[in-house]
Amino acid sequence: MESVDGATRSLPSIRRLSRGLPFGRARGRFGLSPSGRLLLPRNADSQTTAFLLRKHWALYSVTPLYKFSSAHLKAYAKLLSAFIAAEKQKGLAVEVGVELDIKVAVTSLPDLKGSDQDEDAILVQLSLRSQAYQKKSEEKLVWSGWFCSVYGDDLSKNMPEDFTCLPVFLANGAESYTSIVGSWFQKTFDCCFHRLAISPLSLSWMAAMWTRCKVDKTASAMELVFSVPHLPQPLDILYAIHPEDAKALWDTVQKTPGEITQEEVNVFMDCLYSHFHRHFKIHLSSTKLVKVSTAIASAHCDGIIKFLQSQYVIEVLMLLTELAISQIE
Amino acid sequence: MQRKKSCKTPKQPLQDRHKIQTDLSAWRKGGRIDPEKSVQGHQSLNYQESNSKQDSLEPALSYFAKVQDRVSLKSSSALQRHLATVESIALQRGLPPEAFGVLLNTALSGKLADTVNTRLLKSLIPESVIPESSVVSSVSWLCVSKCSSNIQVLFLRWLITVFDFIDHKEDLHALYGIFFQFVQDGKMCPYICHLLYLLTRKENVKPFRVRRLLDLQAKLGMRSHLQALLSLYKLFRPELVTITLPAKTKTYFKNVEGPWKAAIKIIRQRKQEDSPVPQPLFLGTVRPQSRKRKWNTQLMIPATSTHRNHLEEVREKNSDLYSTDERFPVEQLQTFPQLLQNIHHLEFPSQMGSVLTNPLLLHYMNCVKDESVYLRLHFWLGQTLQEECTWCVAANSQYEEEFKDFLETLCRAQSFLHEGLSPCEEFLYRSLPLWDGLCCRSQVLRLVSWIPLKSFSEMKSHLYDPLAQLFFTSSLYFKCSVLESLKRLLQNWLNSQMVHLDSAADSQIHSSNTTISGLVNVVAELIHFVGMISTVALRLESNHTFLLYFILDFYETVCDMYLMYNLPLLIMPPAGVFYPMLLSMDSVSLNQLCYIMYRYRINLVAAKENEQSKKEIQQFRFSNETYQEYNQYITAMVGCLWTSNAFQKDIHPQGLRMDELLTKTAMEQHRTSLNIVYHPAMIGYAVLFLQQACPGDTTFNFSLIKGKKWNWYLEYLYAKGLEGLKLFIESSINRVSQTSRSKAGNTEM
Lengths: 329, 749
What we know:
- By secondary structure, chain A is of the alpha+beta class.
- Chain A contains 9 helices and 13 strands.
- Chain A folds into 2 domains: 4-195, no CATH class; 200-301, no CATH class.
- In chain A, strands 1, 3, 4, 5, 7, 8, 9, 10, 11, 12 and 13 form an 11-stranded antiparallel beta sheet that branches. In chain A, strands 2-6 form a two-stranded antiparallel ribbon.
- In chain A, helix 3 (73-88) crosses helix 5 (175-189).
- Chain A is globular and about 60 Å long.
- In chain A, 42% of the residues are buried.
- In chain B, helix 7 (114-122) packs parallel to helix 9 (149-161) and helix 25 runs antiparallel to helix 26 (545-558).
- Classes of the chains: A alpha+beta, B mainly alpha.
- Chain A: Belongs to the CENP-L/IML3 family.
């Protein structure tokens, strides 16, 4: 890991991060410069990431897959499609390998990873064959899900060979498909899926981190949604900030470029809160942050994420990997 | 009759029976041969009668076994009666395995009219399993075609429906060729194909069979049942079936469930309702699933084999795809001998979580020292505990019973394995601070007692602090159960440490993080913790006897650690525990204390001797403080029980000032008024003794007990079962003075 280019030098510091409370440490965690230049060695090809953008992905954490091998993806697709057909037919025996209404594709996405230690991301796609044009490739994508790991070394470094660490799973499409595909993976690779909720603390980290990223075109406003607890009717407060204002604020808060500390995040959020209080006399600090959306991505505390900028996908995934690992361990 | 009826079926209201009978008539209507009228007649007629005959299947069976040819249903009331009995029992409870042979023979032999045969076949509802032999013999009836084709078809439909209830299938597989012959039969063909579909194994796929099927297909045209069988053949032996089969899947076989499925379901449901314990299911290994709210959490996973071999084969393009390979499927693992026979080609189930409910697999897990096995279990268990904990995850509160069962299973698995699983430990550390001390109490406390022994310094904040908080604020019984669980924890640690010492002798496995001194510190920390909470608890509960018992029980393990567990550690109970014990009002506690002090003495003496005899430098020595503390206690005990010289010196460093306290009681001669006669725990014995020794005397002059009578009194106490006192007095009072090892004990009679 000596050097690929200058950027990789910041990697060891990332890898040294130990588990604990996510983001809870006062040490620099992410080797990102305030200018928004990614110090990550890989940048996901915008073509491969195109399909990820502007979709809502439900987040799951996945424990390491046992005896998973990326050499068998074709076979997995076959078995999975048979499993889906069987589930749909309520347990009737179904042959393996026959063409079915639902086509399953399992492929790998080699670009979506952080370091070389990370496994290739795995994409599962279900498409519906239309009945009318059987022979033609008239297929409609109905569900997709992917496993990935971006700088997931903390989990994978001491893992025996039989285990494949892809701690983050993202699904888009009907929950019923997620459940079938998830069950199959659980049964076949003895892993566990769990919804990955994002805590308000992590959301505020995301708000701070994404604020300082530069986006070319005139970006949309940064929006924070707060929910007021203990009310008979749910009440949400939407707090929209002009991205340049937010960035300016962040620049005054951040002390060392390339490092973000919990303290800085707190100061940043407190500034936003006090500004809001000055105008509306509402203490946002006693509400719950439920959603953050910026030009980079948007994240909801229920564990839903939407990527908006392909060049920041890897960075967001790195954060999610970290969250997932801390849920697994 | 009436009386019998009422006691036989006390729990089944009449309505229930009505309901079942409506079900019955419902499926009858769908039946091919409709015996409705006569059945209805019978039912109303035999309604009461049949109920009383619940247990009288035997006469009916023996009747059918002997029945002559061509008995008419209309003319024979005996046949009517027995047929009705069979039907009602079948629908009520299902038929026992032994009934199938007889009834199948009767139905397929063609002795009786088809109406009767149909009714017999329709009532073949299994209670548990169907013996394979009965099925095999009925296949032979099929071959001699004594019965009509309708009956043959009905039999096949029955066979397909109840296929999974047949206890073995090896002989049935052997009849594959015979079944295949029936493919020619136009009427039976669809059902035979379905049956073959169920039976086919790779070795059954032969070129001549493929040819026959293809011929048939050429003759009859595309038939879904033929296609089904062909595609299965193609799957096993692609090289034999070269034709292209339509890719589109549709249901190959018509629904053949017939009348039986619903009845089987009803019987099974009723069975589950009746029995308080879940019945072992004869079908599959899945436990009745409770409503599952999330797709990804299943607390009890059934053991299923992995299908990974197939994948490997796919990769290798091996033609042995889906063959019955040499792996022994875990589903079939039922007995211990099976485990022993197949241990070399056994494979862990696809989901490790299922081992928890399977003692045989736990055995296997114990033998296989494979890291990945534990890792897989670890991940699953960690996630499941985290997700399902009813007091950590608010939404789960309605699933408390389920979670409790899960923890119970976990407890059983841990005590089976004789070791704690680390996810349980993490779960406890995470969830104890949030625990109310009520939810799943006994399970949680049992999990506590299996926390592994590691030299781990954070026990205090993770375990002791939250536990102490609950301990102080909860009831007496909770305190006692906590003490009990900590005693077990200590015992488990001591046991594991023994194993560790043994294994450390020949290898240096536990080198870095589990040094002996580290372990000793952890054990000492636990004992000090228990001493601390015991002291407080005794004050909170005013020295409740029940509490005393549990505390003494704990120290009974502590006092013997050196000799019993070879651990170089002895810790005396704190003064706050010792003195309340010594001055306890009941003799059981005092006796137990005496025993404990006796064991301390034995252990300390042994330690001292070891230190002196072995000249080599020992890593561990008991500090002089332990000896001093022991001596102080022994002085107090001897003073209280023997020399009538209690608390002469305030020897306790913290200044108990017992002497001053006793002076305040304004009791005369308080100093001399404590010994085995006057001690509050013993005075009852003294009274009884005096009553026996001087029957006439009612003045209770205790001072009479001295000299010879003192010895008699001692004998009297020993005879009353105060063994601990006996051991204590015999060891500490006479011998201590001789060896004069201990300064304190040098008191003599």
